[in-house]
Structures are given as structure tokens and as C-alpha cells.
Design a protein that fits this description.
The protein has eight helices and seven strands. With 217 residues, the protein is of the alpha/beta class. The termini are far apart. It binds S-adenosylmethionine. Residues 23-24, 27, 45-46, 72-74, 77-78, 94-96, 99, 116-118, 135-137, 142-143 line the site of S-adenosylmethionine (SAM). This is WBSCR27 protein.
């Protein structure tokens, strides 16, 4: 029952047509109890994203102190999964200060950046990070596709980018039907290079997720 209520809460604001400001209001009010509620539902998104990034960085024989930016970090689920895998140099970025305050209490992140990612360059300098991860950031009312080129720019050439998205969004939402074509276009424009893309089960409840791993050019 509790699980159904939490899923229903997500469904109510993670839907087409929702306004970005309303989404941030939900997180602002939810931040202090978000982790407790999330523990009630089946979700493996942070685990899937962190595993993909850790596997790729290990494959590349990168040290554990590579500089990582966790975009839409929320309360830090993904950062915590990266910490469990030994990574020590992670910054969190999120548009909601209240979510970042919870993330800060977990002693995972070096810096916390409160920034609303949109269709303009980030406040972060280009070529700053060795890796960028964004788990559950590309959702209606959250981060839109047009932010992607700006996110890539803060990653150093040769750096790793991991994105995870709920698979159904790629088909049922107008915004995220644009994502795969955009990903291909950015590859054709020489902004990044394909490493791997795969489906991961039980990503959010019973729903599948898609994990994308790319290399910045
Ligand atoms: C589903 S939650 C957190 C997901 C988190 N990565 C995890 O693994 O638990 C989505 C987060 O995206 C943030 N967010 C939404 N739109 C954003 C934007 N345009 N720029 C930055 N953060 C945004 C919200 O504040 C919220 O904390």
C-alpha cells in the first residue's frame, strides 16, 4: 500500500505537460522525507548508472579520484553508489537546494552546485570533469533534451558520460522521443563517441531503464 502511494506520487508530477517550477516545488517539499519514501519502492536507477560508470572507468584504468559530476543528484542516491564503488571526487549538481541539503548530509560530495540545467551553457567551466553521470534527470518537467550539448561541454575530451532514462519515456513522451535522434546527431557532429547502450530491468518499479555510455570527443 505504502509502495502504491509513493508510485502514485511520482506519477502525479512526472508526466507530460507538467511545469518545471511545479516539479521543483514538489522536490522542495519532499526533500526531507524523499529517501524514506524511495526506500519503499523498487528502484535500481542509481545502482544501474553508478555500475555503468564504475565499469567504464575501471575498463579505462582510471584512478578512483577522477573528477565526477553527478547531474540531477537529488538526495545523492547515485553519489552514494559511486562512493560504495570507491570513487572519492564527486560533485553534485541539482536545481533544488533542499534536495542538495540532504545530499550534503551523506558525506559523499566535495561540492554541491545549485543550478537549473537548461538550454544555455552551465556556470561550470568547459572541460572540468573526467566523467558526468545523470540518473533520472531526463524526465518531463525536469531536464530537457536541449540541455544535453551543454552538459557534454563540461566534460574533458576523452571523459566518460553516463545517462540513464526510463525506457518508456523514449516512446510515450514528445520530449524524449527526441532523445535518441539527438544522441545520434551529437555523435555525427563529433561531440561524443558511442561506447554502449543497454536496457536495465526494474529500473523504476517494474519499468525498464536505458543506460547510455559515451566518450566525450
Ligand atoms: C528523480 S530526482 C533525483 C535522481 C537522483 N539522480 C537519484 O539517483 O536519486 C530528480 C532530480 O532532478 C532535479 N532537477 C529537475 N530538473 C532539473 C534541472 N533542470 N536542472 C537540475 N536539476 C534538476 C530535481 O531537483 C531532483 O532532485
Amino acid at each position: 500500500m505504502a509502495q502504491t502511494l509513493v508510485m502514485e506520487k511520482f506519477r502525479k508530477f512526472q508526466k507530460s505537460g507538467v511545469k518545471h517550477g511545479d516539479v521543483l516545488d514538489v522536490y522542495k517539499k519532499w526533500a526531507s522525507t524523499y529517501d524514506k519514501d524511495l526506500d519503499l519502492i523498487k528502484h535500481s536507477s542509481a545502482h544501474a548508472g553508478a555500475s555503468a560508470l564504475a565499469d567504464e572507468l575501471t575498463r579505462l584504468q582510471k584512478p578512483k579520484n577522477v573528477r565526477i559530476l553527478d547531474v540531477a543528484a537529488g538526495t545523492g542516491f547515485c553519489g552514494l553508489e559511486l562512493k560504495k564503488r570507491g570513487f572519492t571526487n564527486i560533485d553534485a549538481l541539482d536545481a533544488c537546494q533542499e534536495m542538495l541539503n540532504v545530499a550534503q548530509s551523506k558525506d559523499v560530495y566535495k561540492s554541491l552546485i545549485c543550478e537549473d540545467v537548461g538550454d544555455k551553457p552551465l556556470q561550470i567551466e568547459n572541460d572540468t570533469y573526467d566523467a558526468l553521470i545523470c540518473v533520472e534527470g531526463f524526465i518531463d518537467g525536469h531536464i530537457k533534451c536541449d540541455a544535453l550539448p551543454h552538459l557534454l561541454k563540461v566534460v574533458k575530451p576523452g571523459g566518460t558520460i553516463v545517462l540513464t532514462v526510463r525506457e518508456e519515456f523514449l516512446h510515450i513522451t514528445a520530449e524524449f522521443r527526441k532523445l535518441d535522434p539527438l544522441i545520434v546527431r551529437l555523435r555525427e557532429e563529433g561531440m561524443w563517441e558511442f561506447i554502449i547502450r543497454y536496457i536495465t530491468p526494474n529500473y523504476f518499479g517494474e519499468k525498464d531503464g536505458v543506460v547510455y555510455v559515451y566518450k566525450r570527443k
